[in-house]
From TrEMBL:
InterPro entries per the UniProt record, alphabetical: Metallo-B-lactamas (IPR001279), RibonucZ/Hydroxyglut_hydro (IPR036866), Sec-metab_biosynth-thioest (IPR050662)
Residue ranges annotated for the Metallo-beta-lactamase domain, each copy included: 39-250
SMART domains the UniProt entry points to: Lactamase_B
Alphabetic keyword roster: Hydrolase
Highest taxon in the source lineage: Bacteria
Protein's recorded name: MBL fold metallo-hydrolase
GO MF term (any one): hydrolase activity
Transmembrane annotation, as ranges: none
Amino acid sequence: MADCEQEASLRAGERWQQIHRAPNVYAVQVPFTNISTSETNVYVVEDEGEVLVVDTGAPTDEGSAVLARAFDEIGVDPACASFFLTHLHMDHAGLVDRLVPQDAPLYVNRVDFDLMLDANDPVFWSRVERRVMAEGVPPERARLYCREGRYGTGIDSFKAEGRNLRFVEDGDAIAVGRHVLRVVSTAGHTPGHQSLFHEESGLFFVGDHILFVISPGLGFRPDSADSVAVYLGNVAKMFDMPISRLLVSHGDLRDGWRERAQWLLDHHARRLQRAVDFVREHPGAIGAEVIRGLKWNVPYEWEDISTAQKWCILESGMLILEHQVREGLIMRECDEQGIYRYYAA
């Protein structure tokens, strides 16, 4: 009966709902149509008058209005809040300039912050374009795909000048009233992706680290760490954490996070093996051929899907090839035109 009474006492509005007490946690659905999602879940954590907002949503007039109305109905004054960004993609950090006061504490990861700044440099994207062309993508296509990549990373999600930036990393703690949330590195989707864990309740604010509606994309960066290995390791370590519920950034909240996490590990293992199988069956294939042969879960033929989705597939595919080369399961050779060709080890 006590659980029923607690559920009945949770508050809700048109686009927000309270999902937990002690601390009070509210989920706000901020609209933004992306490749496979239609909103970003922004979370408000409150205790004893202290407030932490997790992510902000995309920079649209509609999203700004929805969030402002939700804050008003919940009773949150953004002028008195702190803010935490899981990563700096526009659909998570795009409303910082409209929402976050200049002097408000803004918790971000240094790696992702530096990447946001670097990705505004044309030299950065020249390096990415050269890497894409090395996989056998024609120059004009490579430039087109990289323009899509700029949309996610290469446009400032917010202006940093004069802000009260607080750089945090794995193991750091953020207090909200009587409660402490621990920063957990969940790098992979972005190099500095990070989540928040409230150990007392088991609530895990995971951003885009694990989603139920789609398999999170892994962002390609030239000369970076093995993003596939980093991501899989950060999924696997969750099984040792006393997590009760995942608070994801896109889609409805669901139970069964362990089953979803295991599915993602198995899904990546199958795709990694397919890359080995493909180059064994097609020795000397260029990277673009291998990537298109990995059987992506898209509803149309390659030429019919959007450029944005092609870019997501391409960068994930390059990371798969990079991982298998580092693992010694695939060999990569550069031909006389500077194009990579792949062989089974």
